[in-house]
Amino acid sequence: MSAPLPISSFDYELPEACIAKVPATPRDHSRLMVLAPGEAPRHHRFLELPTFLTPGDLLVVNRTQVLPARLRARKASGGALEMLLVRPHEGDIATATVWRATGRPLKGLKPGVRVQLKDGTPIEVVRREGELVVIQAAEPLFAVARRTGEVPLPPYIERDQGPLASDADDYQTIFASEPGAVAAPTAGLHFTPRVLAALAARGVAQAELLLHVGLGTFAAIRQEHFDDVRAHPMHAEWYAIDRSTVERIAATKKAGGKIVAVGTTSVRALETWAKTGAASGLSTLFITPGFEFKVVDAMVTNFHLPRSTLLMLVAAFAGRERMLAAYADAVREGYRFFSYGDAMLVYPERG
């Protein structure tokens, strides 16, 4: 049996000043660390990304679109609370009136409780399911969210003045076309039309997949799993890989090109497909060091939180010590971290 994998193995020091509260302007002026095999980290701008890829490579992006999933409500007693839509319990995103959600404070969302949203829409709590609640409305909750919901920014982006009007656009990628995520696939936030045009001119093809980012991406490792994080159960996230994408991957591999996944969400979808053979379904794949990657040859990713499952994924891909050393270098160099922060182009360390 392999040795335990303690959570302390994925810790690093991060000054508060390194946490990005707004994106770079323009987006492709964010910084790009290039971590290539056998080389020290190189420091560039994201708009230079095409120069580091090779004609014949395939860029795989996630087309999920972030829902205005944060719903602010009040109970009959007047107490304020908020709910975050996670995924439909029944039906599809556009028509479902029953959803799974989380809430704050969760103890206030007991079965049978009725709350009222900002616009007066009534919501009923049907039941609890572990750390989630099942809620119901008289109309599709997607329509309710579009009317009265807010962009669910991560807690570390909270600002003294509150959300900015620009967040509704800033927190969507250029690829976003299919609603369903509760958080952005943030590696995609750096791409602009001129970067895509330069990639096409370079001979780098593009393909899409879908993974609706859910709570699994952000759920913290529970204390009972601190001694060995591999016991952590991942929440399920819906993914789907288009037939055309499957065909392009096969053709790229056959021709000797690299599969470059944009974001950890694309990595999880691709490697779930490789592991299960299913081109769509719910992914519960938790990637930690020791995982054998079958599809992804390189990835574009942001800088992730200490002790997070996302950091564990990139550590599995590039090597834990190598990744933590790169993060320490990024702190020294003044990189910006997390969702609105800077990016990395990462290759595995061969041999």
Give a written overview of the molecule.
With 351 residues, this protein is α/β, with parallel strands linked by helices. It has two domains: 7-66 and 170-346, QueA-like; 70-150, Beta Barrel (Thrombin, subunit H), CATH 2.40.10. It is built from seven helices and 17 strands. The protein has a nine-stranded mixed β-sheet, covered by helices on one side. Strand 8 and strand 9 form a beta hairpin. It is globular and about 60 Å long.
What is the topology?
Elements: E1 31-35, E2 42-45, E3 58-62, E4 64-66, E5 70-75, E6 80-88, E7 98-104, E8 114-117, E9 122-129, E10 132-136, H1 141-148, H2 167-170, E11 178-181, H3 193-202, E12 205-211, E13 237-241, H4 243-255, E14 259-262, H5 264-276, E15 280-283, E16 298-302, H6 309-318, H7 320-332, E17 343-346
Parallel strand pairs: 1-17, 3-12, 3-14, 4-11, 14-16
Antiparallel strand pairs: 1-2, 5-6, 5-8, 6-7, 7-10, 8-9, 9-10, 12-13, 13-15, 16-17
Helix pairs in contact: 6-7
Q: Which key terms come to mind for this protein?
A:
alpha/beta; six-stranded antiparallel beta barrel; 17 strands; 351 residues; nine-stranded mixed β-sheet; QueA-like; 7 helices; Thrombin, subunit H
